[in-house]
């Protein structure tokens, strides 16, 4: 009888243990299903299920890993945008510095529609320096903030005549002394008119390098320094073009086209935008002649056979 009692107690204890184990299993949270960016951009195009959750890389990414990832992103973008260039029309350094000053708070397309009349009437710094402000304001009205911009372009023209013999200087320290010219404008001019490397930290550049976790800085000068340290100086100008073009065409501020992005596997922010390939393709923006402001409808807005965004119409 004692043995039977022990067996009964043992059986009861075993049953309780099993029941407790089952309850624990039921209470345990189910493992989360994670989806990462496709290994290649073409993976999304071939019909892979759209990603809904992304595991972001650790903030503990080593310096070496960050440099390698950043440079690989730049190489990928160089293949996507081999024709990347300043999207402001200009024929000489003077036209470029004026056009860049005018591009603040407006589109390059609008500036390119405005500057032909401006430069036809005032082709040299001497001409613009002696211009009637009211007449210049009327020409620049479509660019917005036309009074302030008129003051800047006339002021910088006078400075060029009085201090630099009517020539645009090729040094950063001289350019930033001109009215309306900051480091961003100066680097645009240095990189594209004089072939001297510089990083252009505009709104697109700031947004993307933070989205890619290249830096956490918010001050443009600090962003310039942080990103510049990741690349050889010879890459700076082209890097600026690649990032800015990507920001205008694919990696938009509010709704990036993640499902059509060629650098999705390298992007820690993949999934913040539309990941469905077909829906993402509709978000791509292409501009005639490389100018911003015009969205072409399909079939022009498409991914090419290699799964990369096709160049805009008119691109060389």
Protein model, in words:
By secondary structure, the chain is mainly α. It has 2 domains: 42-85 and 199-290, Endonuclease Iii, domain 2 (Orthogonal Bundle); 93-193, Hypothetical protein, domain 2 (Endonuclease III, domain 1). It has 14 helices and no strands. The protein has helices at residues 2-27, 41-45, 63-80, 93-102, 108-121, 125-129, 133-140, 146-164, 172-175, 183-193, 203-211, 220-228, 236-249, 277-281. Residues 288-316 are annotated as: Disordered.
Short characterization:
By secondary structure, the chain is mainly α. The chain is built from 14 helices and no strands. Residues 1-9, 24-28, 30-36, 40-57, 288-305 and 307-316 have low confidence and may be disordered.
Give the name of the CATH superfamily of the largest domain: Helix-hairpin-Helix base-excision DNA repair enzymes (C-terminal)
CA radius of gyration is 28 Å
Sheet with most strands? none
Q: Can you count the beta strands?
A: 0
User: What is the CA–CA distance across the termini?
Assistant: 97 Å
Q: What's the architecture of the largest domain, going by CATH?
A: Orthogonal Bundle
CATH topology of the largest domain: Endonuclease Iii, domain 2
CATH class of the largest domain: Mainly Alpha
Features:
disordered N terminus, 14 helices, iron, Endonuclease III, domain 1, 316 residues
Layout: helices, strands, pairs:
Elements: H1 2-27, H2 41-45, H3 63-80, H4 93-102, H5 108-121, H6 125-129, H7 133-140, H8 146-164, H9 172-175, H10 183-193, H11 203-211, H12 220-228, H13 236-249, H14 277-281
Helix pairs in contact: 4-10, 7-8, 11-13
């Amino acid at each position: 009888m004692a043995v039977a009692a022990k067996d009964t107690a043992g059986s009861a204890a075993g049953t309780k243990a099993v029941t407790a184990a089952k309850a624990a299993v039921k209470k345990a949270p189910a493992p989360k299903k994670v989806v990462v960016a496709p290994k290649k951009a073409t993976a999304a195009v071939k019909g892979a299920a759209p990603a809904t959750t992304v595991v972001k890389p650790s903030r503990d990414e080593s310096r070496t890993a960050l440099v390698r990832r950043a440079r690989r992103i730049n190489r990928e973008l160089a293949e996507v945008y081999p024709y990347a260039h300043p999207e402001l029309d200009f024929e000489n350094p003077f036209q470029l510095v004026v056009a860049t000053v005018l591009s603040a708070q407006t589109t390059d397309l609008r500036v390119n529609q405005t500057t032909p009349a401006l430069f036809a009437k005032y082709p040299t710094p001497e001409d613009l320096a002696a211009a009637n402000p009211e007449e210049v304001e009327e020409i620049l009205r479509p660019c917005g903030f036309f009074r302030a911009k008129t003051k800047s372009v006339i002021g910088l023209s006078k400075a060029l005549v009085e201090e630099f013999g009517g020539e645009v200087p090729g040094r950063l320290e001289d350019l930033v002394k001109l009215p309306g010219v900051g480091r961003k404008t100066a680097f645009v001019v240095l990189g594209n008119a004089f072939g001297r490397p510089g990083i252009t930290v505009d709104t697109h550049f700031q947004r993307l390098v933070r989205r890619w976790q290249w830096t956490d800085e918010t001050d443009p000068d600090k962003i310039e320094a942080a990103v510049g340290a990741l690349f050889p100086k010879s890459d700076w100008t082209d890097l600026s073009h690649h990032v800015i073009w990507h920001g205008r065409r694919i990696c938009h501020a509010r709704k990036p086209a993640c499902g059509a992005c060629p650098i999705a596997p390298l992007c820690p922010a993949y999934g913040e935008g539309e990941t469905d390939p077909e829906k993402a393709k509709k978000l791509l923006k292409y501009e005639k002649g490389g100018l911003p402001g015009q969205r072409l409808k399909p079939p022009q807005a498409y991914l090419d056979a290699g799964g990369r965004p096709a160049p805009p119409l008119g691109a060389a």
